[in-house]
Amino acid sequence: SGSKVNFRVIVAVGNKNGYVGLGQGKAKEVGPAIRKAVDNAKYNLIKVRRGCGDWGCVCGKEHTVPFKVQGKASSVSVSLMPAPAGVGLVVGDVGKTILNLAGIKDVWSQSFGQTQTTVNFANAIFNALKTLSAVKASEADLKKMGVKY
Prior knowledge:
Layout (H helix, E strand, L loop, with lengths): L6 E8 L4 E9 L2 H14 L2 E2 L21 E5 L2 E7 L6 E2 L2 H10 L4 E6 L5 H17 L4 H7 L4
Parallel strand pairs: 6-7
Antiparallel strand pairs: 1-2, 2-3, 4-5, 5-7
Helix pairs in contact: 2-3
């Protein structure tokens, strides 16, 4: 019929201790697409701020996002909110994978748009994690919030 098949792969990498990366790869076969995506994810590593930002939790450990952040990709927008210890990751499966690789153990989320589109949902979560580092604050304020950078 003349149609050509391409495989599109999205990969998340992380050390479960504050670093996470997301990458995409396209190729005519699955193997090269995965290798391209892994290389791209390693190039896109970011450091994630973590803290104990929930008012109901005073443990002082870095287990959640320190403050509410939002990320957007195409029609999908995601809000990540701090949660007390023990809540877990209240987010979709793709988001759980990315947040787990980033070392975040507890978070509440709210999402809008077509979240079934895996690529856009993953990019929205990743963009929300990027905005954690975009917020500028003094060392004293970060220490008060329990943020470890």
